[in-house]
Design brief:
Elements: H1 2-32, E1 41-43, E2 46-53, E3 56-61, E4 75-78, E5 88-89, H2 92-98, E6 101-104, E7 106-110, E8 115-122, E9 127-130, E10 136-140, E11 149-150, E12 155-160, H3 162-177, H4 180-192, H5 197-206, E13 212-216, E14 221-226, E15 233-234, E16 241-244, E17 248-256, E18 268-273, E19 281-288, E20 298-306, E21 317-322, E22 327-333, E23 338-339, E24 344-349, E25 354-366, E26 369-374, E27 381-385, H6 387-396, E28 417-427, E29 431-436, E30 447-453, E31 467-473, E32 480-486
Parallel strand pairs: 30-32
Antiparallel strand pairs: 1-2, 2-3, 2-4, 5-25, 6-27, 7-22, 8-17, 8-21, 9-16, 10-12, 10-15, 11-14, 12-13, 14-16, 17-20, 18-19, 18-21, 19-20, 22-26, 23-24, 24-25, 25-26, 28-29, 28-31, 29-30, 31-32
Helix pairs in contact: 3-4
């Protein structure tokens, strides 16, 4: 009995040893077979390329764990999200929740797009300075005051000029003698004393001296200054009054430096004044003032407006629209453009739910549309609503911005050119007649024919009889010489 138990124990112990040996062998075989876990991981059916910290997307890690930069877990980057396709992918459900809207870059008509503000002032070129031609005393000023609006010929001041009395008496006495030569000399003296022809004529008609003259305004306008009062004495050449005409006024408009090229002298504008709603006042840019305003970074465009009825008064506020011929341009909605201060971006809507920022060069802006000078092609889709959220996601993913050169606009095919040799038969202002040899590419035989000149200076320095080698193409206008050189040996 003891022997049987001992045998059973021995069998059990042997089985246990065999199990341990088998387990160890299996582990060894597994190790030799390379079944040890590797760093390439999968989650579900998606392959993980690397892990990264969204706040430091440029740093990659081969294992999950805590970020060394922030107190957060590393995020896996799956295959198909980067490398083989540009852009960041957004879940379609999230796109729908965000209410993203897109628009295509398209060719359209763009106006000038320049609207600025300005203030009306006097036309400083329309000023009359009123001065006496002789010394005298002020007898009266007709109750005038600065800022009075007067008409042309309105009296301003009565001036007593004693020096004219003796000269006029002498002239009248000589006239009575009948000596025409002396009378003519005496009359010339009155002119030299500064007496106006109207006063001399009045003396001749009445036969009595006129020492009090009335000085009137030569133009209609407003009295800007009046430097005389009754009883004053004045000298010859002293300024009595300044009268500023009101037939035209100046409108000084503040134009941003970035749009200074649109404010050229001679350009038509339209002014709208709050004082006259619903009315427009046409004008022309007369000058661009030489000094810019350092505080507002603007230049001043001086505009001249007609002032019919004198309704436009200095100091009035106006909105100025710079008119311009509409032109074709590549346009996107202005709300699609993200301006960072250093550059302008748009968020492209690519296929398969992908989005990518692209740098663009913008031009003018008008009616909610912005001109794209470079960086986009016609037909590309841009996001017009919610683009800032996608731009943030793209920044967190470390995605590069497509540079301007990455999407050049389509260019027209370069015209095919041909080369031939010939002799100059005639040179005109915009053409040259050549007796040329065969042109095999066009199956042309030798012939004499007229070619247009693409550059009027291309034939400069050549003369009839010169043998030349020339390059030409065939636009719709006809064969056109692009370049021409003398053949060697001449």
């Amino acid at each position: 009995m003891k022997l049987e138990l001992s045998s059973r124990k021995q069998l059990t112990l042997a089985a246990a040893v065999l199990a341990l040996v088998a387990g160890g062998a299996g582990y060894g075989i597994a190790s030799l077979g390379g079944d040890e876990p590797t760093t390439e991981a999968t989650q579900g059916d998606r392959k993980v390329l690397y892990w990264y910290d969204p706040m430091v997307p440029g740093q990659h890690f081969d294992k999950p764990g805590k970020s060394p930069f922030m107190d957060m877990e590393l995020v896996p980057k799956y295959a198909g999200e980067a490398g083989d396709e540009a852009g960041v992918r957004i879940d379609p459900a999230l796109v729908q929740n965000l209410g993203l809207r897109t628009a295509e870059a398209h060719r359209g008509t763009l106006g000038s797009g320049l609207t600025v503000t300005g203030t009306i002032g006097y036309n400083e070129r329309d000023i009359a300075i009123v001065q006496p031609r002789a010394s005298g005393f002020v007898q009266g000023t007709y109750n005038r005051a600065p800022d009075d609006v007067i008409g042309a010929g309105a009296p301003l001041v009565d001036l007593l000029i004693p020096d004219w009395g003796g000269a006029q008496e002498e002239y009248l006495a000589v006239r009575r003698t009948g000596d025409q030569a002396l009378a003519s000399a005496a009359r010339q003296r009155l002119v030299l004393l500064g007496m106006p022809p109207s006063t001399i004529a009045a003396v001749e008609r009445s036969g009595r001296p006129r020492t009090v003259i009335t000085i009137a305004s030569p133009i209609a306008g407003t009295i800007k200054s009046l430097a005389v009062r009754p009883g004053m004495s004045v000298m010859a050449g002293q300024t009595l009054a300044e009268v500023n005409g009101l037939g035209t006024v100046w409108l000084d408009a503040a134009v941003p430096e970035a749009m200074a090229a649109q404010a050229r002298p001679g350009r038509p504008v339209t002014a709208i004044l709050t004082a006259f709603p619903g009315e427009t006042f046409p004008g022309l840019v007369r000058a661009i003032l030489p000094q810019a305003q350092t505080e507002s970074r603007t230049i001043t465009a001086r505009i001249e407006l007609a002032n019919r009825g004198g309704r436009l008064r200095p100091g009035m506020f106006a909105t100025v629209n710079f008119a311009g011929a509409p032109r074709s341009a590549l346009l996107v909605p202005s709300e699609a453009v993200i301006r960072t201060g250093k550059r302008a971006l748009v968020m492209l809507a690519l296929d398969k739910g992908r989005y990518q920022p692209a740098e663009v060069k913008t031009g003018l802006e008008a009616d909610g549309q912005t001109e794209i000078l470079a960086g986009l092609s016609e037909g590309e889709k841009v996001i017009t609503s919610g683009q800032f959220l996608i731009d943030s996601e793209a920044s967190l993913s470390g995605m590069d911005v497509r540079p301007i050169g990455g999407a050049p606009p389509p260019q027209a095919a370069k015209p095919k050119t041909y080369t031939a040799s010939g002799r100059i038969e005639k040179i005109a202002r915009d053409s040259v007649t050549l007796n040329h040899g065969p042109v095999a590419a066009l199956n042309w035989p030798s012939m004499t024919m007229r070619f247009r000149l693409a550059d009027l200076a291309a034939a400069r320095g050549f003369k009839v009889g010169d043998r030349v080698r020339f390059t030409f193409d065939q636009p719709p206008e006809g064969p056109t010489v692009r370049s021409m050189t003398r053949e060697t040996g001449q």
